[in-house]
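Subject: design request, 561 residues
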């Protein structure tokens, strides 16, 4: 345990009660809000959690969110976005679940790898410690070692950030096998930190079968009961439902879950998640959390002024002008896959007070006839080609880009969208027949997009792309400079391929302008100066767009539309 002792001290040295605590950590200094889900996943637990974080932040508390994912993947990087939603990239390069994006946008702050923990990462750390000999002489067990490692990570975040509250969201639902140890670890955390330091919230789902036409609470009761069987008495229940929560359902949940009525809240579906903070404030959820955690005196109830202003800002008047933007991708039909793009568009819509409708374009269905492209894109005000991987639907995307270029329709390309715009230009303007990316065609005669040199020797797929926030240097007298009003920005990346430097000159001679780079050979922004709006970026501007501070490229794109 020599090395362990350097950074942590143990409450008790015996193996049964192994509970590592970072050196200098003060029990009771930080409060914890723990959010679990019941009945089903995908009911907006992340949205509820980030809304509560925002309301607590608005009260003056320093809130640090943390997501505990149950799966054994070390991070979200290798997950299929169609099944799990978008992979969100943090500034430090961590590939996370999309909920981290919701937290960043709600709290308007950058998060890092310590805000996101998976079971896979916890097990990896434990096995590495075991191999080093850190547990010498002891058998390594789920309890106390796995639970201890989780508590250690939670407390390290508290200590590092000096947070008043760590708000921990546990992925999945309470019945899942994988998250049993996370839930047990947090039960232990309450035991060790004290009841006044840890508040448990359960987000449950009230069924409303169309055949019955009424709300039913039984599934929610069972879900909450299984949490109680694990030794956790929730302090607050938030009931998600399609329509507003009925009083009779609230009464039942209160009785069966052993919770005062005033701590059972309803949260039915809303169109705009940014309207939730004031809604939750008015119901008094953050008041109850502060009462439970004895924070009322230090952080008393504040005025609703800021949250009301926020709610006003994010409301688009009913009679506002409507524009239709196409998104051409292969994962259409699962809007979570492009959730940051939808948010960035929403942020631009708050600023311009334009309503934005989305038309999903499945580019696998666009056949070779140009008329089918015209049919698909004819009525659009603008087109986004988002990030992606592999060959599915890319010829259709290239056709859509060509149509936008030739017909002066605003176009924004993101990452793969940047690369495909470049391929389209190489093929149809520079006459480089069959130009392609080597990701799709290793033998293309014109590899205008090629693997980054640093990527050539990488074999593993996990966390190995060019990842995270990096500087983008913007050329003077370009649209990129005017839009960003700056020559230096920082944006997030997630790619293995780049514009092949051998073709930069040829492309520029034909009229493509590279207006942003890494300061060296990696091209990061392209534009067509003669076009109304034709811009594409190797980075993902959608990851850093915020409700009150929309990404400038998205904003300008929407204005051009
Ligand atoms: N597949 C491309 C690459 O790896 C683009 C990646 C992306 O769109 N995120 O470079």
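Subject: RE: design request

Done. Sequence follows.
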């Amino acid at each position: 345990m020599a090395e362990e002792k350097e950074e942590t001290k143990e409450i008790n040295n015996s193996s049964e009660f192994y509970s590592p605590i970072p050196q200098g950590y003060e029990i009771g200094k930080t409060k914890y809000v723990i959010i679990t889900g019941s009945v089903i996943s995908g009911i907006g637990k992340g949205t509820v959690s980030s809304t509560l974080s925002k309301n607590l932040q608005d009260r003056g508390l320093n809130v640090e969110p943390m997501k505990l994912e149950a799966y054994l993947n070390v991070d979200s990087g290798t997950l299929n976005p169609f099944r799990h939603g978008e992979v969100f990239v943090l500034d430090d390069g961590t590939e996370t679940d999309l909920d981290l994006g919701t937290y960043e946008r709600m709290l308007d702050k950058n998060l890092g790898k310590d805000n996101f923990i998976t079971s896979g990462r916890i097990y990896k750390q434990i096995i590495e410690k075991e191999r080093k000999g850190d547990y010498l002489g002891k058998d390594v067990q789920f309890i106390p070692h796995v639970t201890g490692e989780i508590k250690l990570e939670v407390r390290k975040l508290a200590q590092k950030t000096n947070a008043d509250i760590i708000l921990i969201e546990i992925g999945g639902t309470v019945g899942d096998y994988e998250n049993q140890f996370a839930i047990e670890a947090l039960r232990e955390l309450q035991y060790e930190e004290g009841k006044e330091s840890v508040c448990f919230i359960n987000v449950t789902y009230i069924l409303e079968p169309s055949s019955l036409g009424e709300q039913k609470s039984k599934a929610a009761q069972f879900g909450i009961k299984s949490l109680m069987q694990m030794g956790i008495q929730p302090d607050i229940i938030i009931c998600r439902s399609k329509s507003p929560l009925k009083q009779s359902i609230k009464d039942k949940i209160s009785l069966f879950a052993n919770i005062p009525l005033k701590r059972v809240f309803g949260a039915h579906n809303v169109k705009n998640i940014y309207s939730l903070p004031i809604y939750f404030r008015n119901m008094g959820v953050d008041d109850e959390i502060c009462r439970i955690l004895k924070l009322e005196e230090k952080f008393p109830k504040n005025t609703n002024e800021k949250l009301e202003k926020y709610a006003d800002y994010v409301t688009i008047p009913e009679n506002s002008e409507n524009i239709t933007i196409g998104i051409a991708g292969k994962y259409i039909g699962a809007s979570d896959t492009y959730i940051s793009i939808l948010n960035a568009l929403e942020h631009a819509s708050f600023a311009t007070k334009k309503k934005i409708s989305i038309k999903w374009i499945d580019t696998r269905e666009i056949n070779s006839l140009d008329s089918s492209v015209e049919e698909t894109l004819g009525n659009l005000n603008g087109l986004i080609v988002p990030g992606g991987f592999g060959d599915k639907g890319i010829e259709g995307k290239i056709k859509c880009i060509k149509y936008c270029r030739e017909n002066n329709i605003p176009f924004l390309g993101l990452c793969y969208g940047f690369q495909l715009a470049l391929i389209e230009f190489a093929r149809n303007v520079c006459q480089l027949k069959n130009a392609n990316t080597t990701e799709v065609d290793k033998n293309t005669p014109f590899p205008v997009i090629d693997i980054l040199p640093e990527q050539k020797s990488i074999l593993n797929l996990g966390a190995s792309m060019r990842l995270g926030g990096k500087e983008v240097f913007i050329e003077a007298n370009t649209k990129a400079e005017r839009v960003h009003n700056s020559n230096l920005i920082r944006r997030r990346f997630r790619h293995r391929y780049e514009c092949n430097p051998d073709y930069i000159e040829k492309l520029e001679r034909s009229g493509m302008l590279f207006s942003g780079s890494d300061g060296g050979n990696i091209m990061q922004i392209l534009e067509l100066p003669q076009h109304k709006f034709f811009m594409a970026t190797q980075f993902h501007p959608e990851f850093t767009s915020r409700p009150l501070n929309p990404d400038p490229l998205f904003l300008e794109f929407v204005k051009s539309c």
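Residues 387-389, 415-416, 439, 494-497 surround glutamine (CB under 6 Å).
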